[in-house]
TrEMBL record:
The chain crosses the membrane at residues 7-27. InterPro entries: Mce/MlaD, MlaD_Phospholipid_Transporter. Residues 36-110 form the Mce/MlaD domain. The keyword Iron-sulfur does not apply. Residues 237-291 form a coiled coil. Keywords: Coiled coil, Membrane, Transmembrane, Transmembrane helix. This is Mce/MlaD domain-containing protein.
Length: 337
């Protein structure tokens, strides 16, 4: 049986169209040889999600995204059509999460299955959830910072006006002039600077020598400390305490009237007697100066002793006037004998 060219061309076109359809369907991720159920889910935004994106359950692909369109009557939400394998138990507790599939911003649908109270058979709308990507978190953190930086830059631009620029230029010129003046001053005083450097070096050397002396002094102090440590300090302290106790006991006895020194120090009768004796001795000396012949008589011929007047006479050759006479030769007048 022969076919005309027209029939052959028509059959070839039909085969090409069928192959194109199946190829397009395959490229969209649809499995031509497996049955699936269709479900829907609605999101506010589906940035990064494409048709034929995978639907994943525990890391395993269980379906693909078939279609996406805008719901104008629901504030422009996006309805996503999902094709899910029939052997997956989808119900009213299933969550369809819009998550990241790679680091470049690609999206996928991840299913989270929980115990269901109602089993879905297809055509139902699932519970949506959107996971924040790293880009979204960085954007949320960076936007306030970028706003602050932008306002800071605006303030800096306002601050660095023409007057500020002229002030900065003048400051730079003054700094350059100051630097030049310092340079000239350093060149003019190079000799003094060298001398100061030499003095500092000498001072450092002197400090080094002083440090050595201090080290020797520290060694000597350490030796003295060791010597004192080995010395019988406890015995010395006990002896010193004993001496102090004896001195305190002696002072206590001095303050009492029992001993001789205590009576001398505390009884004023000795003082009064000594005072009276001193006064009598002073009176006697004064009378001796005034009447020396009354107390002393020298005779070149007869010898012996003569007393004209006295209160008490123990021994004399001649007595003219006396109160008491014990032994005498000639008595002129005696009051009490």
């Amino acid at each position: 049986m022969k076919f005309s060219k027209e029939i052959k061309v028509a059959l070839l076109g039909i085969v090409a169209i069928v192959m194109l359809y199946f190829g397009y369907t395959f490229l969209r991720g649809s499995d031509l040889f497996s049955s699936s159920n269709t479900f829907y889910v609605e999101y506010e935004s589906v940035d990064g999600l494409n048709i034929s994106a995978p639907i994943v359950l525990n890391g395993v692909k269980i379906g693909t995204v078939k279609d996406m369109y805008i719901l104008k009557d629901k504030n422009n939400k996006i309805r996503v059509t999902l094709s899910v394998d029939k052997d997956i138990a989808v119900g009213d507790s299933t969550i369809a999460s819009l998550s990241n599939s790679d680091l470049l911003g690609g999206k996928a649908i991840t299913f989270f299955l929980r115990p269901n109270t109602k089993q879905f058979t297809g055509g139902e709308t699932l519970t949506p959830f959107v996971e924040k990507s790293i880009t979204d978190m960085l954007t949320a953190k960076a936007m306030p910072v970028l706003g602050t930086i932008d306002s800071t830059l605006l303030k800096l631009n306002a601050f660095f006006g023409e007057d500020a620029k002229r002030s900065i230029q003048a400051t730079i010129l003054n700094t350059q002039a100051t630097t030049e003046a310092v340079k000239n001053l350093m060149v003019a005083n190079q000799r003094n600077i060298n001398r100061i450097t030499t003095n500092v070096a000498d001072l450092t050397s002197s400090l080094k020598n002083t440090e050595q002396k201090f080290s020797q002094l520290a060694t000597n102090l350490s030796q003295i400390t060791d010597t004192l440590k080995r010395a019988p300090i406890n015995t010395t302290v006990r002896q010193l305490n004993t001496t102090i106790a004896e001195a305190q006991s002696m002072i206590k006895k001095f303050n009492q009237d029992s001993g001789t020194l205590g009576k001398i120090m505390n009884d004023d009768s000795l003082y009064r007697n000594m005072n009276a004796s001193t006064e009598s001795l002073n009176a006697l000396l004064q009378d001796l100066k005034a009447n020396p012949k009354r107390y002393v008589h020298f005779s070149l011929i007869g010898g012996g002793t003569k007393v004209k007047q006295a209160d008490n006479v123990k021994s004399a050759d001649k007595v003219r006037n006396a109160n008491t006479v014990e032994n005498t030769g000639v008595v002129g007048e005696v009051q009490n004998k």
